[in-house]
Structures are given as structure tokens and as C-alpha cells.
Design a protein that fits this description.
Chains A, B, C, D, E, F, G, H, I, J: It catalyses: (S)-muconolactone = (4,5-dihydro-5-oxofuran-2-yl)-acetate. Ten copies of one chain form a homodecamer. The first copy, chain A, has 98 residues and is α+β, with helices and mostly antiparallel strands. Chain A contains three helices and four strands. Chains A and B meet through helix 1, strand 2, strand 3 and strand 4 of A and helix 1, strand 2, strand 3 and strand 4 of B. Strand 2 of chain A pairs antiparallel with strand 4 of chain B, so a sheet runs across the interface.
Chain lengths: 98, 98, 98, 98, 98, 98, 98, 98, 98, 98
């Protein structure tokens, strides 16, 4: 099941940026791992912002919530979830079936 | 170059729905063709709405604009474009390189 | 899997209200049937508005989308979907397990 | 009488998180107790957020306000209340009457 | 129980204004009657707008909804309901008790 | 002359709450006094919020501004003023004349 | 007593523009008359819009409402009223007193 | 050339209020001086807020920007500029010509 | 003097599109002429929308308003004007001086 | 390829302004350099604000993102990117071709 998450990171001034960099590095590894398992399908940077648009393929809303809240930078994130479904014009299923 | 387009279709009451259905069928074919050329990477339906989230891979902003405005339902669409770039956590390039 | 849908009905002036009433009656029957199957868990009227807050328990986002778009008044609806998950403070699972 | 409360928790950076965890644990117990008395009908987590959608069944608006402001995390909450009423399509009364 | 309703009337251009005037006259009588019964406590015009701020004292949310939807101009109204409760600084109870 | 003021109190985390409580107690006394003089007609708590809806009957906008800015919690308030006038459906004048 | 009114005119497509022009000419005469009486202090066009920012000096909110609703184009207007008062930095009173 | 500036002052809690008062006193003198030169035409307090609506008559946008950014409280201000032009209903030019 | 205008064209369904095309062709010629005189500095299409971002160099706000309202599609436009001034980082003056 | 970036700088109270001034001076040099290379086409100050409207001509969205995030004041910026394309009414290409 597919969900888009628009994730914006807001680090308040005065935060220890070394800590943020460490969390960020940890997050990148975690995100790569979740992409390899097929749970985190896509992640794109939004130009000009510390924000990304991600697409997740999960078994349940609870699984999505657990992934998002386990991200190291989650305490600094604002997340907007949008439930997605198959579009009649999409050929993604067809391609995969080849 | 990647762009997300959030496309919402608004058909005012009183519109000839047979015409809209015909335009919609035409659009689905056009969208499938653009997906096969690799210009239209993804299209997902937003649950509960006549709206989709699409990702395009185009050579220029002009190409994106031309694709969007050539869609049969364009006169009924509200389109929000977001410029995307590679995210440091993304493995999409790596996968494609295999 | 649980989703909240906030559903607002907007009937433009000049619409044939007899037709709307007939669609509305049809919708009430359909909603009652879906409640009996356990797909449509709750429906509450928002005070002062032609709008409701509903909670659905569906197997997939696609199922949710199909239910919503099959509603007789769907062409007059604005729908906002929110993905829900179990709250650690909820006792609903416990109660059901008794 | 039914009210929906959309409750968002915002803990500013720099807050003592041990204190927040303690308040949160206390709140979960309080919420479970209010569910058992039938005052707090439902509580669902909103995916990706420290927020919930709750439905209360109270005797008066004052009772609702007292419950909300007595929550241990109330000083960190933003609450939006929506007054609900019975929907003609609802079968909840019927079911309960069986 | 007290509720504020902010009521805005929007009559689309081209509407038969004689009909609107008749509905409006009917509504004024109905509103005066409800004020005399103590259900409709206050009604004030918002300067510069076809809109009012009203306060209702009702036994339930359902009663409020029934009053609002029975207003002759209801099909042209946008209504925002706010649930109110006693303020610790209010002396209204005290005055009434004298 | 009547004005509605929607008053929201925002106390930033870390504020000395004993000081806030003292200001709040002072404000309640001041508000009661102004109600007795007939300047502050109504004050209602908005359910779930540290906010109120008040109605003032003042001789001028300057008098209203002076009252609002003299409130002990004014530095923590966000105030939205709405100018009100007599509604043709109101019977308040009539009642008072009896 | 001073009030700012931000007045936006929205004429829906298909309206008889000869009628609008006639109402507009009538309104200009009425506005000039009210400026000469000192009730309508200022009127400025907002660049790029069919909208103006006006300042009125009236005896009461009711007088303001009556002026605004008597404007020939009022049925096409959206009006936002802001209550103004004397600013401590203003020299307008001083100048007038010379 | 005329511009409206809506100026809102936001002083974060914890600011040295003696310093703010000193800046404010300085600003009032500066504003009075600019009114006497005819650059700052009007300044009105918005009721209930630390905010004003001002009208400036300047030779260029750069002059306007320089005036605004030279205000002692500028670091605490949020400024919204609206470009104004002569309204066909205005008699201000006529009056001045007498 | 520089102003940005964000211009959005909204043509309601049912409009005679031949007429719109003729107005649009006329507007393009007018825009080109104004660019050649140096009044209309830039015009860029916003991707995915019938909208543009334009920059004007005019002698006064009145001149800007006259240009905008004389555009053939003005009745279908929503225009947002932003007053611009020289940025300390800009080299545009320097380049022109070479 | 053209992009507009609306850049707003927000420096929280309590920030070391000497540091901000140094970053700002550095940024002006960097911006001038990028203008000379033709990457940063325009930069205009928005009147009354610490904000600018810039137009960039870059080879890719990634290049745009890299430029923006390398700005010394980037941690204090809020950036809104708009993808632009050639407008049929523009003569900019023609002029350049002369």
C-alpha cells in the first residue's frame, strides 16, 4: 500500500549542528536500508528546502507510522501523509509483470 | 530533470460528462505513452479525490509545461509543480546502474 | 486499516433538488449497508454543515477510494482523507478481544 | 453529546524529555480510564504526527473542556473541537439498541 | 449549552432577489421567535457583510443543527460552529441568580 | 457600540507560571469589574483552548483599545476585533425597553 | 470614529457590463458626496485590482454598515472592516488644531 | 507615490522591555518628523493589536524601503506593503487644489 | 521604478474560447510593444499554469495600474503586485553602466 | 533553465548580529560573482522586508539547489522555488539574438 510523505526538517537556531549531522548521517543509512527492502520506494529532495517527498510501500498505516517515527531526525520533522492508490493511467503494474 | 506535479481535476456541474469521459480515456492513453517513453515516471491517484501526484523526468521546464498543457483535461486542471533533485539518501541512481 | 474521511457536500444553486434528494436517500441506504459489513465504522454529522466525519476500516487504500467514489453524491463531494493508526492509549482492541 | 477533538502535541526543542515521557505515560492511563467510563469514545493516532483524533461523549461543553484541560500534556497541546450530531445514515443507535 | 455560530449568507448572482427577500423576512420572524424562547440568545450583524454572529443556548448539538438547517436561508449559508463554555471571569450566572 | 474580541492567550514554554497565575487572577477581577460597568457585555471560554470570545459595549474604538491593552495578560494575547452592529432580527433592544 | 474598509469588487463573467458601468458611475458620485461630508475620509485604488482601501469617519458601526450596504455595487463587493484608533505617533489631531 | 504599509510589531517574550520602550519613544519622534515632511501621510493604530496601518507618499520604492528599515523597531516588525494609486472617486486632489 | 506582477488568468468554463484566443493574440502584441519601450521588463510563464510572473519598470503606480487594466485579458486576470527595489547584491546597474 | 526563488531571511532575536553582518557581506560577494557568470540573472529586494525575488538560469534543478544551499545565510532562509519557462509574449530571446 502506497503513501506519500512530505517531510520537512526544521532545526531551531542554537541546536548543536554536530549532533544534527550525526543524526542525518544515521538517517541516510537507515533510509538506504529501507529502500533496499522495498519499503521506502522513492525519496526526492525539494529544491531550495530541507525537505523531501518520499513514497512508501507498506503493509499497514501502523507500519508507516513506525518507520516515520523511528527516523533519527523525526523530532525535528513535520510530516504530511497522503494515501495513494493505483491510477488507471499507470503502467507500473504492467512493467513489473514483464 | 525531475518535477512533481500535483494535478487536480475540477469539472463544474453542468458539464457534458460524455465529453469528459472521452477526454479522460484519451488522456489515459496519452499518459501511458509518455510513461513508456520515460518522460512520465509515476502517476498515483490521491485517495478520495479526482487528483493525482505525478513525477516527470524532462529535459527542460518548457518540455514539462508543453506536456502538461497538451493533456486533454488540462482546461479542467489545477497544477502545482515542485522542482525535485537527487536526495543524498536515494539509491535510485545506484539501482539503475546495476 | 483505518482512515478518516471528512466529507463535505456542495450542491451548486440551480441544481435539481429532487435529484439530489433521491441520490441522498440512495446514499443513506448504501452507507447503512457498508456499516453493517464493518467497512464504514462511523459517520457523524458536523453541526451546522452539510458535511460528515466518517471512519472506514478497509483492506487497502484502493478499497477506500472505490467506496468513496461509488457514493451517489460523490460528484458533489469534497473529501479529505487522513490515515489513522492505533493509538497507544486506545482500549478498542482490548474491548473487542473480550 | 458528541465532540471530535483533533489534538496536536508540540514539545519545543530543549524540553526535558524525561518529564514529557512521564506526563505521556500518565496521560495514557487517564485516557484509558475515561474510555472505560464511556466519556472518551475513540482515540486514533494520525499517521506521521504526534497528534490524535478523539471523539468524546459528554454531558456538556464544560465537561469536555474540563477533560481536555486536565490532560497532563495539555500545556503542549493545540486542540480543535468540532461539535458532532447524529447522521441520518448512521446505524450506531440501532446497533446499540439490539 | 452554548454555541457560537458565525453565519455568512452568499447569494449567487442571478438569484431571484424577490424570493431571497421573502425568505429573509421569514427568517427574521423565525429568529425573533427563537430569541423569545431563549434558544437564540444573541444575533449581531458583522459590519460590512451579509453575515452575523449568533449565540445559541440549546439542549444538544442535534437541537442546534436542527435550528440552523431549518432557517429559510440555510441553503445560502456557510456556518461555522464554536462550542462555548462558562468562563471563570464571567458574571452572567451571578447576575441571573439575583 | 459593540465589538467582538476573540482573545487567544499564548504563554511560551519556560514562562514563570506563578506569575501567569497571578496575572490571570488579576485579570478575572478586572473583567468582572468591567462587566459590572456594562463595558464588557459577555465573555465565553472556547472549548479546548485558552481563548475566549468577548463582546464589548464601548463609546469608541479608542476606549476598546485601552481596555484590551490594559489587561494584565495582554502581552501574551492575540486579539482579533470584529465591529458589530444591530441585526434586524435582534430583539435585544425591545427586551431592554420593557 | 475611524474604520478602514478594504473593498474588493467581483463581477462574475456574463454580467451586463453596461449596468455595472452605470452603477459604478453612480457610486463615484455617492463616494464624492460622502467625502465632502467628511464621512468618507480617503479612498485609494489598490494597484492591479478592482479594489480600494477606504477610511471612514463615522459616529457608529451602524452608520458605517449603512453607508457600505447603500453603495450601488455593494452586491458585488467583499468588504473587510478594520477598527482603527488614534496612534500615539500621529500628528493628525495636532495639524487639525492649528 | 502612495504606499500603504501594514506594520505589526512582535516582541518575543524575554526581551528587555526598557530597551523596547526607548526604541518606541525614538520611533514616535521619527514618525512625527516624517509626517511633518509629508513623507508619512497617515498612521492609525489597529484596535486590539500592536500594529498600525500607515500611508506613505514617497518618490520611489527605494525611498519607502529606506524609511521602513530605518525605523528603530524595524527588527521586530513584519511589514506588508501595498502599492496604491489615485481612485477615480477620490476628491483628495481637488481639495488640495483649492 | 520596479514592480513584480504575478498574473493568473482564469477563464470560466463556457466562455467563447475563440474570443479568448483573439484577446490573447492581441495581448501578446501589446506585451511585446511594452517590452520594446522598456516598460515591461520581463515576462515568464509559470510552469503548469496559465499564469506569468512579470516585472515592470514604470514612472508611477498609476502608470502600472493603467498598463495592467488595459490588457485585453484583464477581466479574466487576478493580479498580485509586489513593490521591488534595488538589492545591495545586484550588479544590474553596474552592467548597464558599462 | 529558469527558476524564480523567493528568499526570505528570518534571523531569530538574540542572534549575534555581527556574525549575520559578516555572512551577509560574504553573501553579497558570492551573489555578485554568480551574477557575473550568468547563473543568477536577477535579484530584487521586496520593499519593507528582508526578502528578495531572484531569477536563476541553471543547467539543472540540482545546480539550483546547490547554489541556494551554499549561500552563507541559507540556514536563516525560507526559499520558495517556482519553475519558469519561456512566455509566448516574451521578446527576451529575440533581443539576445540581435
Amino acid at each position: 500500500m502506497l503513501f506519500q510523505a512530505k517531510i520537512t526538517v526544521r532545526v531551531p537556531p542554537g541546536t548543536d549542528m554536530e549532533k544534527i549531522k550525526a543524526l542525518s548521517a544515521e538517517e541516510i543509512e537507515l533510509a538506504k536500508g529501507l529502500q533496499r527492502t522495498g519499503k521506502w520506494l522513492h525519496i526526492w529532495r525539494i529544491a531550495g528546502k530541507w525537505a523531501n517527498i518520499s513514497v512508501f510501500d507498506v503493509d499497514s498505516v501502523d507500519e508507516l507510522h513506525n518507520i516515520l517515527t523511528s527516523l533519527p531526525l523525526y523530532p525535528y520533522m513535520e510530516v504530511e501523509v497522503t494515501a495513494l492508490c493505483r491510477h488507471p493511467a499507470s503502467i507500473e503494474g504492467e512493467t513489473a509483470a514483464l
